[in-house]
Records
---
Amino acid sequence: MTLRVRAARPDAHDYAAFVQFWNELGLDDHPPHPRDQWEEHLCPSTLFLDADDGRLAAYGLSFPFGDRGDVRQIVVSSAFRRQGVGRQIMAAVAARLRAAGCTNWRLEVRAENAAAIALYRSVGMQVVHAIHIVYLSRADAERFAATRSGRHEVRVVEPADDAMLEARFDLGRGQIARWRAFRGHCPILHAGDRALTQVWRNFEPGKGLLFPFRAADGDVAAHLIAVAAPMPEQIEICVVEEPVLEALVAAGATRHDEQLEMGGPLPSG
């Protein structure tokens, strides 16, 4: 099958295509709106695979962060699945990241998505860690926050903090700056090198989001949640550290989903 790699164009046609691919992912959150937000922040990092008949076969969104490539979304159109198109869009994304100076790449995938995990393993990726998605009610969050010891100071992340936090929490260089630019209304908090989160209070009607949510233990996690307040009736929290997951579940959180962060060296062209 002959497919052509092309960069997304900042027009209504490609925005509509992006929204269609986004919706195929089945995400809880909605695609960026209005269109100019997509054009500014995502379009320059988007690739499509075009078929000869003009149909779009696949979509890839990725960002270079120093030597780390961050693959945010990979989607193959339903009409083109099981035809090797997944490997083609991965190869196209890898080529773009290599050209930007990246030597390795990361992505996140739902733990039950066996087909996607097999694809990512086929290009050399392995599981780095699990990401546990839990829901916590506002009442339970307030009770959990009240257990904090008071030993940790939580502050807004300043640009001067970025490099230290990116190294501490295994993020790509410049990743925090992108969070700051893309969602300027979402404060990014840290407690020294012990914890980091971004607070999205209006993620969905009645739901807030803490993503990422990295904390050394349950106590410093309680400090983060205390400063993140006030939050809506429900909070979605994306947790990596097992002791923090256990503390949140003990506080009343319910498990919603599990994702895997996968990564490895970029394959050669």
---
Amino acid sequence: MRFRLKALSLHLLASGILLTLILGGLYLGWYRWPGWYLADVTQVVVVLTCVDLVVGPLLTGVIADPKKPRRALLRDIAVIAAVQLIALGYGTLSLWNGRPLYYAFSEDELQLVQAYDIEPDQREEAARAHAEFAPHWYSLPRWIWAPLPADPAERNKIIASAISGGADVVAMPRYYRAWEAGLPSVKEHLVRLDDQKFFSGAEKKMLHERLQASGIAADQRSTLAFTGRGHPLLAVFDPANLRVQAFLRAR
């Protein structure tokens, strides 16, 4: 039994260190709040954790028989480790491809833009014509303004694409502008919490409580919805300087 526990503990330690390095690097680089919540990657992380910290070490504990020939034992552990690495690689690739790249204000809301939202042709076009905002593999999340183009034909084309489930302007870096340039539009679209259309009555009640707990007035025009793959957050701004005061969960 002692031999099995030792093998299980060593496997658990190695798996834990590797998983911590990968998830820690992704979190510190791209998924810091509110990115992790808006990207809704909890399910992927849970699966990775179960495979690497539960299933793998437990299987090692089961097959770690001190009477088994050492070569056979090493072979079995190598097979378990290989399956773990494949699962870890798949999960890591999913998180990498979905990493947050932009926090975009467009029209009347904030939106999370993830790496897989931007098609390769959009990346190439932005790199040629709008390099300042073009995404790269090393790009960290940036606040940007993504207004619809002034040209009516282009504008209508993008709106039709978004309505039909295609690309929206927030996934087209060639239209991006500096965050500071969009602040007047941000201020114009700030609304009171009670006027938010993205939250139910019960959620607004909870948000009222959280605003009160944060010492923020709920009756002023200071909020925008912040949407992503998961449930939206309430972004609260200081109306005086348009700095973000809080991101509040409605659940």
---
Amino acid sequence: MTSKALFMKYTKTAVLLFSAAVILSSCEKVVTIDLHQVNPRLVVEGIVSDQPGPYTVKLSRTGNYFVPSLVFPPVSGARVVIKDNLGNRDTLRETVTGNYETTSLQGAVGRTYSLDVIADGNEYTATSSISKKVAIDSLYALPRQTSRGEPGYDIWVMFRDPPELGNYYRLNVHVDSLVSQDSIDGRRYRLYSDKLTNGNEITERVRAGRLVVSGDSVTVDLMSIDKAMYDYFSTLNDVLSSDRAATSLSPANPNTNLDGGALGYFAAWTTDRRTIILH
């Protein structure tokens, strides 16, 4: 689920809860409800990494309650600039409607990157820093049986947190054959902070079920992210992990590092990637 879809979800929830409250309290008189249209908001999805470019910034807009849709219009004709703290500057070119690519910028560990977007006369900014790269120490898989007796695998990933406090990670584990899924087991955001495990070896077990079979390629990405991105994905994960009941959702969006009223994120991180073949 994207930031755009989440925004639509929260908006509809707020309207439904408000409508329900009015109905319950209006047994003896007619109440006219003035539902104001929610103005579409800019959604930014941009990443700079230590991997070779070009890097892409995607711009689109949310929908509104009165025009529900799963298609969110891309934003064309914007001015998008990324620069680093050493003075390097790159004006992105629009290669596909709503997609803006760098032409010369290269991500590097230790640098801070700033994004500046001007769209429809409004300016949006964000900054993010590329943290020290942490490598995967070990990756292996062991066959197992699921609770229903079906075949499956346990995927084990291990990496060591540096001795310095203040490191944050996102781990993504996926199988090449499952092109319709975001991860090997449907869990999108595995996030780690070294607040309680500083300097320790971190081990993650991923339980893969019957959709993963011998011969599949399992790819693991370990991203070293900054605190702003950790907070964004943490709050997004909280929303996605809710029970989806209307009464359990609050009309709020995940934390963002974007200024100017936009949704989404601008991230700078390192990636260590490992792949194994299941046997």
